[in-house]
């Protein structure tokens, strides 16, 4: 196990696998996540509903590939068009929540993108989803008394 969060969710492993093989060999891939590196730091979003800082992403919509979902989420949450780099799959053990009432294993597609610091201002202006992602900040600038989702913090280490 690599990390556990405040809800008991676990990041079990990061699986290095070709993007085209991931969906064929692992199921369910329930989420696509984007690690955004800016300089030597990482960009985080404050989730309005979870009241914590996390990396960006969301669930694939019907008929979307993992990459299509990631590109869409980057546009919604960051206001950017990007070609994210494939990093691999995260293997999770998820506790009961609003998605399911049972403990379950899931996989998340992990992508990464490196941006120059000048993108911060652009992101703040152009991001579309301001209801879910209330605000953005670099990881190193987030106050120590604010909650950062531990699984998300750990995922930044893989990029």
Question: Assembly state here?
Answer: single chain
Spans where pLDDT lies below 50 across 5 or more residues: none
Identify the CATH homologous superfamily. Nucleoside Triphosphate Pyrophosphohydrolase
Query: What Rg do the Cα atoms give?
Result: 15 Å
Number of helical elements? 4
Give an overview of the whole structure.
By secondary structure, the chain is of the alpha+beta class. The protein has a single domain, classed as Nucleoside Triphosphate Pyrophosphohydrolase (Alpha-Beta Complex), CATH 3.90.79. The chain is built from four helices and nine strands; from the N terminus they run E-E-H-E-E-E-E-H-E-E-H-E-H. Strands 1, 2, 3, 4, 5, 6, 7, 8 and 9 form a nine-stranded mixed β-sheet that branches. It is globular.
Q: Features of this protein?
A:
159 residues, Nucleoside Triphosphate Pyrophosphohydrolase, alpha+beta, 22% helix, single chain, 4 helices, nine-stranded mixed beta sheet
Record the SSE blueprint:
Blueprint: E1 3-4, E2 10-15, H1 19-25, E3 29-38, E4 41-47, E5 52-54, E6 56-58, H2 66-78, E7 85-94, E8 104-115, H3 119-126, E9 133-138, H4 150-156
Parallel strand pairs: 3-8
Antiparallel strand pairs: 1-2, 2-7, 3-4, 3-6, 4-5, 4-9, 7-8
A few lines on this structure:
The protein is of the alpha+beta class and 159 residues long.
